[in-house]
Design a protein that fits this description.
0% helix; Chaprnonin_Cpn10_CS (chains A, B, C, D, E, F, G); protein folding chaperone (chains A, B, C, D, E, F, G); Chaperonin_GroES_sf (chains A, B, C, D, E, F, G); homoheptamer; metal ion binding (chains A, B, C, D, E, F, G); mainly beta; Chaperonin_GroES (chains A, B, C, D, E, F, G); 10 Kd Chaperonin, Protein Cpn10, Chain O; 6-stranded antiparallel sheet
């Protein structure tokens, strides 16, 4: 999706949506040699940038999201709404679509 | 959809529907040079014009909508009901289809 | 659908159904000149003629319909059950399918 | 569906089912002239012959049907289970599929 | 489905299932003349042989089935699980799939 | 599905799953004559070997399964998860998929 | 899915997700002879490495997962989200997708 946003920080996800940015794969080996582009795979890891207030359960109560800004998460292979701000790409997932937290 | 409305202001969305107008992309560069039409992309940002009273939860209580008139929102790539009033185009979305609020 | 009804007034919608009649587009310009037929578009505006008693929520309580006879409404592009009485055409929609009220 | 029923009166619909018989279109004009068969359209009006005790809501309580034997109703264009008893044809609809009552 | 059952009586339907046997169409006319096989249609009438204890509603309570052994019922044109015991054929339907009771 | 299980007894079904083994059709006639393989049909009867603790209803309470180990049951023509342990084949069904108990 | 994880231990499944690793089939016979690769079948047995805190029931309460880290489980033939960490492969299943516990 195309936006004219100046900064991704102006985006506040609604309901149970979670704004993430995919973590870029390293393009150099540990020894500092640049990898050929075909060897750089897109990772399914992402950093949580912003989290909506939570969706509603069937009694109209907010459900607390499972993640918080700053969390590193495992995202599914498919799905999510892509957003482009300048040259950077982001995605919006629903809270329950995120697979796992990554603790480091 | 075609209407004979004199003004979009006469439209009061029902239930959880939200009336928005897509924000037009700039057709000039910052320096004032006109962009060729092919370089002007349709934005997924929209301004909320009117909001329905909210849908019903399963106990028959109204659910408060997540947005209010005047809000700027990120709309999904597909979906929504297009409405034409005069030369202007508008869309109706359901509250939960809106992706994020845009704070400026 | 074909009926042998003498008058549309004999039709009492059941549950959450709403009987509407599409508003006919003007076939003359403001200045009184007749528009060619190809320029007359079918409008998505309709007048509510009759409203059912409301559907049931999951606890068996009637849900009050959102519109009332006499209301002008925006109807969706597709859907509804068409009914023909004499030369006139009407439609039955479910309450939640109606998009917006039109206030004049 | 084929039955060996002697009379349609022996049929007691179960749950929310409603037994109706389509009203036959007139095959003569008001002036008594017979219409050619191609001009006789099948009507979407039907007479209610029998009504089941009502389906169950999610708490196991019976939901009162919207129609009663003797009612004239508008039936949908498609759907319903056709039943043939002798030369006569009948249909079973679910209560919520009936569109409107016809008051005369 | 193929079984090695000695008697259909050993079958006790589970939950909301109902065991029925289709009533065979008469192969003779009232006057005793045998009908050609092509004129003998399969009937949608069946006799209830056994009824399960009932399915559960959403609160875990058993829902009383609508029919009892010995009832004659109208079965839908399609559906049901066929069972063969010796040369005889039977069917298992879910309670809510049965269309009507036949009172004689 | 392939397993390295030493014994099927080590398998404890989860939630509402039921472990069954299909009953083998007789390959001899009552008089002791071997049937040609083409005449031996796969039966839809199975013996219950193990039963899960039951699924959860919508209030989070366990629902008691309908069958117990040792029960003989009628299984549906299609469905179930096949499991192979050594040369023997077993299946896992969900409790509600089983059609009937077989009482002998 | 591709990750840059250093260790699978840094993965904490969300909601009702369960992280498992498939048990490798033996590549030698009991007598110590190596099996040809075509004779080594992928097993549907897996070891549970980590378990999410549980999904929510419809009243917003956590549902206790059926398995715990260290459990050996039977996994379905299809489904699950594959994850690769270094040369090792893992899968994420939802709790209710696991078929059985394997007790040894």
């Amino acid at each position: 999706m195309t936006t004219a946003l100046k900064s991704i920080k102006s985006l506040a996800p609604l309901l149970d949506r979670v704004l993430v940015q995919r973590i870029k794969a390293q393009t150099k080996t540990a020894g500092g040699i640049f990898l050929p582009e075909s060897a750089v795979k897109e990772l399914n890891e992402a950093k949580v940038l912003a989290v909506g207030p939570g969706g509603f359960d069937k009694d109209g109560k907010r459900m607390t999201p499972s993640v918080a800004p700053g969390d590193k998460v495992l995202i599914p292979q498919y799905g999510g709404s892509p957003i482009k701000v300048g040259e950077e790409e982001y995605s919006l997932f629903r809270d329950h679509e995120l697979l796992a937290k990554i603790n480091e």
